[in-house]
Amino acid sequence: MRFAWLLSALILAGILALLQHYALANLLYWHYLWFDTLMHFVGGLTVATFGIALLVKRRALVFLIAMFGVAIGWELFELLINAEREANFYFDTSLDLLMDALGMTTAYFLARLSIWRYA
Question: How far apart are CA 115 and CA 1, in angstroms?
C-alpha cells in the first residue's frame, strides 16, 4: 500500500511540474488569477502524499509539523525570490497557505480511509 502512495506522489509531482512549465510558458499566472490557488492545492496534495508514503506509522503530530514547515517554507521561498504578484501580498500568502492546507488535509483524510485506517 505504501508503494501505491509513493507512486501517486510521483505522478502528482509530474503533473504539477508539467502544469508549472505550461503555466510559465503561457503566462497563466498573470492571465488567470485563480491558477495560483489551484497550483497551491495540488502542491499541498503532492507534498502530503509524499509525507504519507514516507511515514511508517500514522503520527498526526509529526505529519502536521512537517506539512506546516513545508507550507511556510514555500511561502518564505516565494518572498525571497520576490515572487509577490499582487499589491496585497499578505492576503495572497494567506490564501496560498489555506489552499496548501486544504490539499494536505485532503491527502490526510484519504490516508485515514486507506493506509492509516487501522493504525
Answer: 7
